[in-house]
Amino acid sequence: MSNFSKLDAVLSSLPDDIEKSGVSATSLLQQKAIDVRNNRVNWQSYKQSQMISNEDFNFITMFDNTTLEKRAQILQTHGHQCAKTFVSLMGHIAKDQTVQYILTMIDDMLQEDKTRVEIFGDYARKQHESVWTPFLSMLSRSDGFIVNQTSRIIAKMACWNKGTMEGADLQFYLTWLKEQLRLPNNEYLQTVARCLQMMLRIDEYRFAFVNVDGISTLISVLAGKVNFQIQYQLIFCLWVLTFNPTLAEKMNSYNVIPILSDILSEAVKEKVTRVTVATFRNLLEKPEDKDIIQDNAIAMVSCKVLRHLSLMENHKSDDQDVLEDVEFLNEKLLAEVQNLSSFDEYSSEVKSGRLEWSPVHKSEKFWRENAARLNEKNYELLKYAGRASRRRLGGISAASRWRLVGVSVASRRRLVAVRIKAPHEKSVRFVARWFLPVSSLI
Predict the structure, then answer these.
(1) Of 355, 340, 369, whose CA–CA distance to 398 is shortest?
(2) pTM of the prediction?
(3) Which of 58, 96, 145, 336 could form a disulfide with 297 if both were Cys (CB 3.0 to 4.6 A apart)?
(4) Chain center to CA of 87
(5) DSSP letters along 253-264, please?
(6) Tens of pLDDT along 74-93?
């Protein structure tokens, strides 16, 4: 079965709207929507003040005061008028409470039957207008419920329409979602994540999200303090992305494996564990480049994933998928351990940014045997070490560069060539207590 066939099979077993899943928590948006539905709008007052037309008044009062069955009949015969009225009301009414009610009516209408997204598409085509403009413009409003209810509608339309969202509209929406993820203390973060969970089911949207720097945003949020529900939702997004071989090959350049390993070590909810090990499996199974698969495996070994898998085996899951994923990972990683060299271990440490005072940093023999390998792949490891030197791991990184200078006169030139400073006297003094005197290496 191909990557995408398997993904389609998995996603088809999930509800169309992930927020309606029986296992998911009730979001703040859902809670507030209950109150919004109970605050009925006095449409007559809008008609009397001439804020809405007679045509819109007649439709909205008919639509708002009826049963589900009659509503379906109305939409069958008055679909064009439905879209026209809702677009008009969104554009002409400013009061937040009324706009909240309008958007909730639209969302409920779509939730009842996902094919109703075509009502807005058909109307826009006949008017020679963009179906997205009325909704995207709502994202600039200041009310949190309004913008997030609108976002929820956009995600449904983008996923359930016959055509896909494209170009500047798609980039604008995905950028907005990304910015909402980064928004401090965003009380609607759960809804933002759920919109992404829906959007990233579609391959074109995955690439577009990566192009707006989406992966690094997901990782940044996961690296912070978020609850298990957000962890699950954002790792779900990463998991879906890894079904695409091209994107799976890019993943660990964003330091995904160390972050997910930390989450796995502390996870208390099985759904977080389940989606994390599923993502790890994809990182060893989906890339087509064998070198990348090996790098991912080494990174997992270095991040103590085998230890976490061992603990999971001691607490048997009832989920057959989890058991299969754990077995797969154990087999692959244990095989990798057999072939793991000291240089592989060091390389993985440097790339992950998680340098430790391990034996390789103190071994003169290691550096004499492996110094030349730092030239590989256009000085890739030296560049990683340079980035580490600008973080709190600078002492260990400086030690590595100091060793390199010590074993080769040409090494300083290499460091300069890739614009990395050779260790200065303060760095040498800082790490000297860990090593032999400088004279013993020169």
Answers:
(1) 355
(2) 0.77
(3) 336
(4) 31
(5) GGTHHHHHHHHH
(6) 999 999 999 999 999 999 99
